Amino acid sequence: MISNTGSAAGGVLSDTARLCLHTITTRPWSLAECVRHYAAAGVRGISVWRNCLETTTPSEARRMIADAGLTCVSLVRGGFFTGATAAERQKAIDENRRVLDEAAGVGAPLVVLVCGATPRQSARTNIEQIREGIEAVIGHAAARGVKLSIEPLHPMYADVRSAIVTLRDANDLCEAIGSPHVGVTVDVFHLWWDPALQAEIARCGRAGNLLSFHVCDWKTGMADMLNDRGLMGEGVIDVPAIRGWVEAAGFGGFIEVEIFSNRWWQEDQHRFLDAVVQAYLQHT
Amino acid sequence: MISNTGSAAGGVLSDTARLCLHTITTRPWSLAECVRHYAAAGVRGISVWRNCLETTTPSEARRMIADAGLTCVSLVRGGFFTGATAAERQKAIDENRRVLDEAAGVGAPLVVLVCGATPRQSARTNIEQIREGIEAVIGHAAARGVKLSIEPLHPMYADVRSAIVTLRDANDLCEAIGSPHVGVTVDVFHLWWDPALQAEIARCGRAGNLLSFHVCDWKTGMADMLNDRGLMGEGVIDVPAIRGWVEAAGFGGFIEVEIFSNRWWQEDQHRFLDAVVQAYLQHT
Questions:
Q1: Residue B151 host element (H or E)
Q2: What local confidence, expressed as pLDDT, does residue B12 receive?
Q3: CATH second-level architecture of A44-283?
Q4: Residues 6 or more apart from A60 whose CB is under 8 A from it?
Q5: Can you tell me the ipTM of this complex?
Q6: Residue B10: its pLDDT value, please?
Q7: Which residues of B touch A120 (CB under 8 A)?
Q8: Which numeric CATH code is attached to B41-283?
């Protein structure tokens, strides 16, 4: 479905009807604070990071989110399916079943997968183990009514986080698995550099596999490879162009702001939330 | 040609007959120091970075290298062909002609190209400008007897250094240009993460386009995105496997150690050079 507010493909976003935040974006806040302040700022969706569930049960989280009038978009994150031994890989599968239980408890229709990578295993071996891991939990996902979404990560995380590093890889894997319970997530930070991106976004749209869309920005000269992401407009990514491709591929769901930033986490989070909303309206 | 010493595809390197160092690897040393100490350590090839030519003329550099019995493998680096205006791009073309003159003066048969990227230009536009830039200097390269080698860089450098970020992109561009004076460089640091790497190495070997091979290692948790490369064996890259693919593709030339490392540059460079030779024999 294409939302009917502020979502003409590539056009200006005129309101916050499709704006979702990842709780990690405002990491200093508890889930209760996230829920309250997001709703007050006009944010309509929330993607819950699992660290929030260390102090809140899934059912409490679900109630808080519903009471604030927010929609739960995804639980972040499952995955990390690779491992040097079968025992390690089984442990990951068991953990992913718990993640799916939590997602169902929170009311998240989707679990984002950071697929995993084991150093010095070949990309091919890692990808095979990822496929086996995902296939082992599809039945559980179906039973819980939760989808699994493969998120390709930037190749600078290929050593220990994900052997799936391009949208082509994610599409290949998703189509090889061929399950209605498995799709892909497009995150501009990870994928913006790829000359094949537009074609691969169209491909996953055609296949009905495009499940979610994450935005932030890539700053030249990042101080940290993990926690120095930029707000949309602070970096080099043409976010509106990529959003246009995603929408042309038929996606009209939430636009999820996911920013890890030591710099922004040190700021007053109310001021940061205002900046997120402005960046969403002006540079997304 | 396949060298007959220490070069059976994928086998152990039993001597330093194919060992080449980039002068940037021992950045604290002058060209004269590099030449003297490399030769004494059994290194046989040298790739000269242009900063060395700020204090030494190309012909002096050529004489020093020959007197030490070293082979000059490449001049590093040309490229940076993209730009927002035609005037900027013409300036880059003029600069690359000077680089080719310097390469001929030094006796380098090859110029390595870091192709360039202009932020907020699409990958497609950047790649088109790179193609135009290379094509504009092919005649000059042919006249000087110097080849141009397209080096795909890691996608984490796609913002300002290179829109050519996979070996597939480099092979596509090289084949589209279709000149005997243009080929590609395989650097394990930039390319190790790509599931298509083995196939693309075979492809550029078949096409006769595989001109040079760079090694170092990728360390998990790098302190710096540019200057924290590892010595072979310090990181996650299976360098011997990739060397095996390169040799199976018909490449038997120099194996070039190119390391940018604030950590190693702070060490005694004689001790570092010993470590390079050991890492070459044990982990390459």
A1: none
A2: 86
A3: Alpha-Beta Barrel (3.20)
A4: none
A5: 0.92
A6: 63
A7: 236, 238
A8: 3.20.20.150
b/e for B173-206, b at 16 or more Cβ within 10 A? bbeebeeebbbbbbbbbbbbbbbbbbebbbbbbe
List the domain boundaries for chain B: 41-283
CB nearest B123 (choices: A158, A193, A222): A193
Nearest by CB: A159 against B120, B197, B236 = B236
pLDDT of residue A10: 63
Give the predicted TM-score (pTM) of the model: 0.94
Report phi then psi at A207, rounded to 5.
Answer: -80, -5
pLDDT tens column, A223-240: 999 999 999 999 999 999
Alpha carbons B220 and A82: distance in angstroms, whole number? 17
Work out how many CB contacts closer than 8 A connect A with B. 68
Q: Is A155's Cβ below 8 Å from some Cβ in B?
A: yes
Q: Are B246 and B213 in contact (CB under 8 A)?
A: yes
pLDDT less than 50: residues of chain B: 1-8
Q: Quick: pLDDT tens for A149-185.
A: 999 999 999 999 999 999 999 999 999 999 999 999 9
Q: Name the A residues in 158-187 with CB < 8 Å from any B CB.
A: 158-160, 163, 165, 169
Contacts 24+ apart (CB under 8 A), A56-61: A56/A30, A56/A31, A56/A32, A57/A105, A58/A101, A58/A102, A58/A104, A58/A105, A58/A106, A59/A105, A61/A31, A61/A105, A61/A106
